[in-house]
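I hope you will forgive my troubling you with a question about protein structure. Could you please explain, in whatever detail you think fit, how the structure tokens follow from the sequence? Thank you for your consideration; the sequence and its tokens are set out here.
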Amino acid sequence: MVASPLCRKCGRRLDQMWIDQGEEFHPSCKPTDPNELLAINLLSDLTDVIKWTESNSARSVQKSIGPSELGSLCDRKIAYRLAGVSETNWWSDPLPAIVGTAVHSWLEKAVNRFQEVHYMTRWQTEITVKPDEMVTGHMDLYDNELNAVIDWKTVSPTKLKAWKADGPPEHYKDQVNLYARGAQLANAPVRKVVLVAVPRSGWLRDMQ
């Protein structure tokens, strides 16, 4: 396993000098209390479990580019992804993505369970679509009544504030329209595209 360049206590980057010496803490951060060291070690082990599981998830190991990535505003990022270039940012925090995936899974089950109990067939969940021969994606929700493609977005309080003021980001609009194109190619009529902002920290009344 490659040593982390981040201090195990404060999370800030270590100087290369400390990394070369095998240090895992800044000098001022190195714990002296055994219980504190135990807590840090346990937290580090649990973090390793979370990071490993996320980096080896089906979503993370997916080779083909999807609509969410094609919606990126960075052409270089898209080009690297199409070329299969490996990611170099090993130390990014995966928790927001994990929470987003968990919320999507919960919402899918909620919609299906609601329809099962109420004998409804209005919504279809997690439909595989191909807006292009090279691109495959999974549409969150399709509304048979409104002929609408619906995409859930879990957002931070900061992003939610910006969403309320200026509307959803452009790359989200691109993404949901790519899903809509895939639905049309699968002979599903599309009259509307919908983005639903679900706050990662907040209340149902905060949804947009």
In short: Residues 170 and 177 are 11 Å apart (CA to CA). The radius of gyration is 21 Å. The helical segments are 16-20, 34-55, 58-61, 67-70, 75-83, 95-118, 157-166, 170-185.
